[in-house]
């Protein structure tokens, strides 16, 4: 009889098609775009969910799920409160890793790089495109900081909504976007017997260099 909390016999098999070097795009952004398009067609609600891993100046890591909002040659962008834990980490140590896992496709992508803030204009533009409830929550909350109760949060949102009955919620200067500029990609495809396919792209002075990694 297994002890409570013993998950050693919980497992799954991976049965997706292989990922070969011949089938890999030489441009990691193009490869990611192809995989993202497939993920969006299969699980549109979750395809843009990504783990964002940051670390403080002392090296203590922290990770959380955020949503990818746009990507391209410039990098991979998301939005948040600059006063959050991730904001504090990035102020001290402006590098991070993003990780996408698409369960139904048995695929994973890791992206490392340096992080910069987007412009205030970009943050304001996206803020004003959000639903009213999301704008109220963002403006009324100081993300990651303690609060005495749920009621306090709801009261702050209510007061802000009453102050701006026209729905024109001011964009907080403490809220905006970040963009990660990739220096490394890793594409992982689950395979039978845990003999997974992994390819890593590293940015060099000669461009992107790719190599297969052992599983």
From TrEMBL:
One of its GO terms (molecular function) is pyridoxamine phosphate oxidase activity. Binds 1 FMN per subunit. It holds the Pfam family PNPOx_N. Pathway: Cofactor metabolism; pyridoxal 5'-phosphate salvage; pyridoxal 5'-phosphate from pyridoxamine 5'-phosphate: step 1/1; Cofactor metabolism; pyridoxal 5'-phosphate salvage; pyridoxal 5'-phosphate from pyridoxine 5'-phosphate: step 1/1. The keyword Manganese does not apply. The keyword Oxidoreductase applies. HAMAP family: PdxH. Its EC number is 1.4.3.5. Catalyzes the oxidation of either pyridoxine 5'-phosphate (PNP) or pyridoxamine 5'-phosphate (PMP) into pyridoxal 5'-phosphate (PLP). Residues 175-215 form the Pyridoxine 5'-phosphate oxidase dimerisation C-terminal domain. Residues 46-163 form the Pyridoxamine 5'-phosphate oxidase N-terminal domain. Keywords: Flavoprotein, FMN, Oxidoreductase, Pyridoxine biosynthesis. FMN binds at residues 64-69, 79-80, 86, 108, 143-144, 188, 198. Homodimer. Belongs to the pyridoxamine 5'-phosphate oxidase family. This is Pyridoxine/pyridoxamine 5'-phosphate oxidase.
């Amino acid at each position: 009889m297994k002890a409570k909390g013993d998950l050693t016999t919980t497992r799954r098999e991976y049965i997706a098609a292989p990922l070969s070097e011949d089938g890999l795009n030489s441009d990691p952004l193009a490869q990611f775009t192809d995989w993202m398009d497939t993920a969006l067609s299969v699980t549109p609600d979750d395809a843009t969910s990504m783990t964002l891993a940051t670390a403080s100046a002392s090296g203590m890591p922290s990770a959380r799920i955020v949503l990818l909002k746009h990507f391209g040659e410039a990098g991979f962008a998301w939005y948040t409160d600059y006063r959050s834990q991730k904001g504090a980490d990035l102020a001290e140590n402006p590098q991070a890793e993003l990780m996408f896992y698409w369960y139904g496709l048995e695929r994973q992508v890791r992206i490392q790089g340096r992080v910069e803030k987007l412009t205030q204009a970009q943050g304001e533009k996206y803020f004003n495109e959000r639903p009213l409830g999301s704008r109220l929550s963002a403006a009324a909350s100081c993300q990651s900081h303690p609060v005495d109760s749920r009621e306090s949060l709801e009261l702050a949102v209510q007061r802000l909504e009453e102050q701006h009955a026209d729905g024109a919620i001011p964009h907080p200067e403490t809220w905006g976007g970040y963009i990660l500029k990739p220096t490394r990609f890793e594409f992982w495809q689950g395979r039978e017997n845990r003999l997974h396919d992994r390819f890593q792209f590293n940015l060099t002075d000669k461009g992107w260099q790719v190599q297969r990694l052992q599983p």
